[in-house]
Amino acid sequence: MTLLTIKDLRLSIGDVEILKDIDLSLDAGKVLGIIGESGSGKSMTALSVMNLLPQAAQRGGSILLNGEELLQKSEREMNAIRGREIGMVFQEPMTALDPLKTIGHQVAETILVHGAASRRDAYAEADRVLERVGLPRDRFPRDRFPHELSGGQRQRVVIASAIALKPKLLIADEPTTALDVTTQARILELLRRLVDEDGMGLMFITHDLAVVADLADAVAVMRQGDVVEAGPTREVFRTLAHPYTKALFEASSHVPPRDPSLPGGPPVLEVSGVVRDYRIAPTRMFGPAGAFRAVDDVSFTIERGENVGLVGESGSGKSTLARALMALEAVQAGTITLDGKPLSDTDLEARRKLQVVFQDPYGSFNPRQRVDTLITEPFHLLGGAAPRGEERQRRIDKALTDVGLSPSDAHKYIHEFSGGQRQRIAIARALIIEPSLIILDEAVSALDVSIRAQILDLLAELSDRLEISYLFISHDLSVVRSITDRVLVMKSGKIVESGKTEDVFRDPQHPYTQELLAATPSLERSMAGA
Amino acid sequence: MIRFLAGRLLSVALSLLAASIIIFLVMEVLPGDPAQFILGMNARPDTLAALRTQLGLDAPPLLRYFNWLFGMLHGDFGLSYTYRVPVSELIMQRIGVSLPLAIISLTLTLLIAFPAGILAASKRNSLTDVGVMGVTQIGVAVPNFWFAIILVYVFAVTLHWFSAGGFGGWNKGLWPGLRSLVLPSIALALPQASILARVMRSALLDTLDEDYIRTARARGLSRRQALWGHALRNALIPVLTIIGLQFAFLLAGTIIIENVFSLPGLGRLIFQAIGQRDLIVVKSVVMLLVFAVILVNFLVDVAYVAIDPRLRRRA
């Protein structure tokens, strides 16, 4: 029977139309995947069901839950429905829990606020629910606080608090996007199990087609506040009837065209025996300080024009290694040479050969500076030799043109650009000083798939044309596979496997690499299994 | 927890030691003869010499410092030059006025600021919010001594509810003493309460936008329940910082307010001692005020740990 029926749902915030005539339906015991890029309205659809919208929001149309019209419920009635009839799980497990309350309390709260049990019974039930989501009491005492848990464990607590009263509908808004692949696989498994056991309906919102391909019984593809296509998952993915679905599908498995030959010559980067220790505060007053080895005897080289991928989960040491390469932190042992010169934080000549592009296109620019000031920032590495006047202008124009923007963009502020354009500006900032190596630290992870495909094309083209090498750091294996020549797999500070990208992906040797690949959702695999 | 307390207490002791060194250096070692300063320019040489001996100024500075320090540890603050009584006796008398004044003002500050801040935040952008923000804006802008004068004019001169100044003393029972502290406490508290209410409001609004509030609402908590159950405690962390800072301003405020209301408190004592160049009293009272501020900041630190589990380390 139909659990949730959304009909002609309209939503506007102020004068802005967010959703136009959304039609969706979900049966009990089934999973509906809602796919869309940022701004498609997928989260707003979920929040409309919960009625947790911003204040100026206006809803129209109809949302029926088990035949009851939610749009006509008062705020008081909705309070009784949220948590009891509908549970919701959000994207950011790190901030989704109150840092000052114990995990036991936050799960029991769902039961208590609905007056479903006495205080004592609520805590006992919370204990059982936490057990059910994979947090046994002996390892996770219920008086633990959120900061004592990892991201995946916190997401389990959020899920427990959402399902404590066995709601009929569970809404999960990008619940695994912030998690590592192996953690993601376990959370997806958990959600599927809960749906099967409780006969709950699950509305699963994601930007990642591969994730829903395995999980969802039916999917709806959203774009700019509209559902462009909906139907059973396999059918939608096999026929790709709508051009937008097709474009999304192609963009997610996009492989940029690359020139496989390398220009040769001496390696650009040589890393040999690098060790990075962190000091751990002593456990006793005046006691000895401990040490944590974040990077353990790492060696590798990158050839001119070569794209090398560095993959690993959070805590594997890949970001620490990147910081050491950027000479932001001193290493305890080993050498790093760039174009034959040892790298140090005082040697500007060596440092100008290496630039970096970070993940967050929104946070990595000063909002009060114009684009020309932003992208000429690396010029300080040239000291007195920094280009001025016409030469500076020429370099700005060239860098912007190289990344597919126009020279006239130089006088704009960063807020005038979209996420993809900002990442182009970040690449322009790295290019302007003509480096030999660019570290791309999750540089495309925050981008929508269609934008991501464009940026990957741009990166491939720049690497071929300007003979630039990349160290491509990412947790997203499919992206690494599409753009790199060679890949390094990192775990617990060590490189456990390295080799040609295709070889490693086709025939992984190390158990950890095998585990990573198995956990990575793959469109091809789920389509092949159909 | 015990290690944390020990660490904080050690830092309290070190801060007090550092403060005592600075106070001593400024008062006694920097160029200028304290005896000459106390007696004025026209003092006779033999009086000067006598005072120097009495103040122990003949001894080397290091010895004088340690004498002062160990004296204080035993409750011996020396003899006031103008009053001719032990400074400790003066302080004990005056603290009976200043301590209740500080406690009442701080309590009033909290009693006004918390409800006002919470009310404004929970009804964001409503008429109530605008009203609270407007009133507190005035409260922040008006200096407390001017406010004190207005209070005296309205409640003492016109309505005769309270006396315009002076202290009833505690020996005649609680009410006469308390009654003379009402207007001064209000004058001290209102500007501080205005600041704190605004801080409370913005801290609450910030936490109400946090992800965990949305999670709590998704569990079925009403807006009100989420505010009381989750937002308030999280908002207390920045608010506590401000309370700690405000206490120092409150102490500074007592110097002015005690003068406006002619209250025989520490503020008035130090004010008069400065006027009478009674360096021995000034030195000791400044040290005492430093101690009060450091103590309150220690309590704020302990409160942080009590509120925020992230600051506690699991043994």
Architecture blueprint of SSEs:
The complex is a heterodimer of chains A (530) and B (315).
Chain A lengths: L1 E12 L2 E12 L3 E6 L5 H9 L6 E9 L2 E2 L5 H7 L4 E4 L13 H11 L5 H14 L18 H13 L5 E5 L7 H18 L2 E6 L2 H7 L2 E6 L2 E7 H7 L3 H10 L16 E12 L9 E13 L4 E5 L6 H8 L7 E6 L2 E2 L5 H4 L2 E4 L13 H5 L13 H14 L16 H13 L5 E5 L7 H18 L2 E6 L2 H7 L2 E6 L2 E7 H6 L4 H9 L3 H6 L2
Parallel strand pairs in A: 3-8, 3-9, 6-7, 7-8, 13-18, 13-19, 16-17, 17-18
Antiparallel strand pairs in A: 1-2, 1-4, 4-5, 9-10, 11-12, 11-14, 14-15, 19-20
Helix pairs in contact in A: 3-4, 3-5, 4-5, 5-6, 6-18, 9-15, 13-14
Chain B lengths: L1 H28 L4 H6 L5 H11 L5 H13 L13 H36 L4 H15 L2 H15 L15 H35 L2 H8 L4 H38 L5 H10 L3 H29 L8
Rg of chain B to the nearest angstrom? Answer: 24 Å
**If you consult CATH, what is the topology of the largest domain in chain B?**
MetI-like fold
The residue fraction in helices of chain A comes out at: 25-40%
CATH architecture of the largest domain in chain B, by name, is: Orthogonal Bundle
Residues in β-strands, percent of chain B: under 5%
Approximate shape of chain B: globular
CATH superfamily of the domain at 2-96 and 170-252 in chain A: P-loop containing nucleotide triphosphate hydrolases
- CATH-level-2 architecture of the domain at 2-96 and 170-252 in chain A: 3-Layer(aba) Sandwich
Question: C-alpha Rg of chain A, in Å?
Answer: 25 Å
Average pLDDT of chain A, rounded to a whole number, is 89
Note down, in words, how this protein is organized.
The complex is a heterodimer of chains A (530) and B (315). Chain A is built from 19 helices and 20 strands. Chain A is an alpha/beta fold and 530 residues long. In chain A, the strands form four sheets. Chain A has a six-stranded mixed beta sheet, with helices on both faces. In chain A, a hairpin with a 2-residue loop joins strand 9 and strand 10 (226-232). In chain A, helix 13 (389-402) crosses helix 14. With 315 residues, chain B is mostly helical. Chain B has two domains: 2-73, no CATH class; 96-311, MetI-like fold (Orthogonal Bundle). Chain B has helices spanning 2-29, 34-39, 45-55, 61-73, 87-122, 127-141, 144-158, 174-208, 211-218, 223-260, 266-275, 279-307. The N and C termini of chain B lie close together (9 Å). The chains are: A alpha/beta (530), B mainly alpha (315).
